[in-house]
Automatic annotation (TrEMBL):
<feature type="signal peptide">
    <location>
        <begin position="1"/>
        <end position="18"/>
    </location>
</feature>
<dbReference type="InterPro" id="IPR016054">
    <property type="entry name" value="LY6_UPA_recep-like"/>
</dbReference>
<keyword id="KW-0732">Signal</keyword>
<dbReference type="GO" id="GO:0009897">
    <property type="term" value="C:external side of plasma membrane"/>
</dbReference>
<dbReference type="InterPro" id="IPR039237">
    <property type="entry name" value="LY6G6C"/>
</dbReference>
<protein>
    <submittedName>
        <fullName>Lymphocyte antigen 6 complex locus protein G6c</fullName>
    </submittedName>
</protein>
<dbReference type="InterPro" id="IPR045860">
    <property type="entry name" value="Snake_toxin-like_sf"/>
</dbReference>
<dbReference type="GO" id="GO:0032991">
    <property type="term" value="C:protein-containing complex"/>
</dbReference>
<feature type="domain" description="UPAR/Ly6">
    <location>
        <begin position="19"/>
        <end position="100"/>
    </location>
</feature>
<dbReference type="Pfam" id="PF00021">
    <property type="entry name" value="UPAR_LY6"/>
</dbReference>
Length: 125
């Protein structure tokens, strides 16, 4: 009886995790996700999001599924001293839980809007 219960619970666990999908893309300022896909989460693995910053400015994010070869390991303020980049990696295991990466810093918004306005004026000229 215990074996049947264990087998049933194992089957339910595998069935529940088989449908979990993660977002997979590189997200960059202004363009958003480049090469957007989704990946199915393997049992025992997690979705991950790595956000990369230069100082306090968000540079890009990498969203993907963890694998047995490269499982998700949460890290905060991991620094590459040569490039001056900081990395934060978070893990999650619910359907589409790694979808939104941080938005560009507010300093990029005026630059982008100014560039668009300049392009518009040039086109009207």
């Amino acid at each position: 009886m215990r074996a049947l219960l264990l087998l049933t619970l194992s089957a339910l666990f595998c069935w529940a995790t088989a449908d979990i999908r993660c977002h997979s893309c590189y997200k960059v300022p202004v363009l958003g996700c480049v090469d957007r896909q989704s990946c199915r989460l393997e049992p025992g693995q997690q979705c991950l999001t790595t956000n990369v910053y230069l100082g306090k400015m968000w540079v890009f994010s990498n969203l993907r599924c963890g694998t047995p070869e490269e499982p998700c390991r949460e890290e905060f303020n991991k620094t590459n001293h040569k490039l001056g980049l900081n990395y934060n990696t978070t893990c999650c295991n619910k359907d589409s839980c790694n979808s939104p990466a941080p938005r560009p810093t507010p300093a990029l918004a005026p630059l982008f809007l100014t560039s668009l306005a300049g392009l518009g004026l040039w086109l009207l000229h």
